[in-house]
């Protein structure tokens, strides 16, 4: 799949599924004009846009140039037209270290809204990301981690099992696995963070039709290992079949899910 087309599918189809999660976290942390927020793996910027609309100064970091280009369209439209951009918004292509700026105060909130605990090895990658980001945050800053809820409360889990079925069992890295109860807590502990509350949020996945559902789910990256082990046509076929039980009479696709978030503090 073309990388830009995939990023566009994420932006236009899939990203909005996590809006209830963003809202719940921002409400709980009272994100507003006094907030300096650093969004790690910020994607195409919807969560950042919501924080900025509450008055927060936001910085987004992502390793995907394609998703970051879409974030710029959302958050810095004036810059795209060659006029002055909003000073309170920054987007950084690369690592958190590239967002360091000695002229600005420490961040008060760090978010990682990309759900972890569903790909083999993703917790280790997040640990490295946090290690480079936490020096930019002030003492007591909130760090938000997100992940999938219990498989029995996530209808999409049955669909995601297609990824495990098709992936090469000898290459487990990057293949989907069910989320574990303490995934988020383990990451926080290894990063030296102090847990300070958690919550669960209903985030149903709703799509206009089967094609949109397939494109949206593929944009998450959760099927990359399966595609590499087989081919895109095979993944599309089996994914479509797995989605059929969730198709409504009007052709839409609906899957109730629950996501977890953990709030931890920088010591």
UniProtKB/TrEMBL annotation:
Pfam families: Methyltransf_11. Keywords: Methyltransferase, Transferase. It comes from the Bacteria. SUPFAM superfamilies: S-adenosyl-L-methionine-dependent methyltransferases. GO terms for molecular function: S-adenosylmethionine-dependent methyltransferase activity. Coiled coil: none annotated. Residues 39-77 form the Methyltransferase type domain. GO terms for biological process: methylation. This is Methyltransferase type 11. It comes from Streptomyces cellostaticus.
């Amino acid at each position: 799949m073309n990388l830009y087309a995939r990023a566009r599918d994420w932006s236009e189809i899939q990203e909005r599924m996590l809006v209830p999660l963003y809202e719940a976290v921002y409400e709980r942390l009272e994100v507003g004009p006094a907030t300096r927020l650093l969004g790690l793996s910020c994607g195409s910027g919807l969560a950042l846009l919501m924080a900025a609309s509450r008055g927060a100064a936001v910085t987004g970091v992502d390793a995907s140039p394609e998703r970051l280009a879409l974030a710029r369209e959302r958050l810095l439209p004036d810059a795209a037209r060659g006029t002055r951009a909003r000073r309170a918004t920054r987007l950084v292509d690369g690592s958190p270290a590239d967002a360091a700026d000695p002229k600005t105060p420490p961040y008060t909130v760090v978010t990682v809204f990309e759900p972890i605990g569903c790909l083999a090895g993703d917790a280790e990658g997040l640990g490295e990301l946090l290690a480079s980001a936490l020096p930019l945050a002030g003492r007591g800053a909130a760090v938000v981690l997100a992940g999938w809820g219990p498989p029995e409360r996530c209808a999409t889990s049955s669909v995601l099992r297609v990824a495990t079925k098709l992936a090469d069992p000898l290459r487990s890295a990057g293949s989907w696995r069910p989320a574990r109860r303490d995934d988020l807590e383990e990451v926080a502990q290894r990063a030296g963070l102090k847990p300070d509350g958690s919550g669960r949020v209903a985030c149903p996945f709703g799509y206009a039709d089967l094609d949109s559902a397939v494109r949206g789910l593929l944009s998450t990256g959760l099927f990359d290992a399966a595609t590499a082990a087989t081919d895109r046509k095979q993944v599309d076929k089996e994914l479509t079949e797995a989605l059929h039980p969730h198709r409504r009479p009007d052709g839409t696709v609906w899957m109730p899910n629950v996501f977890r978030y953990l709030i931890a503090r920088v010591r």
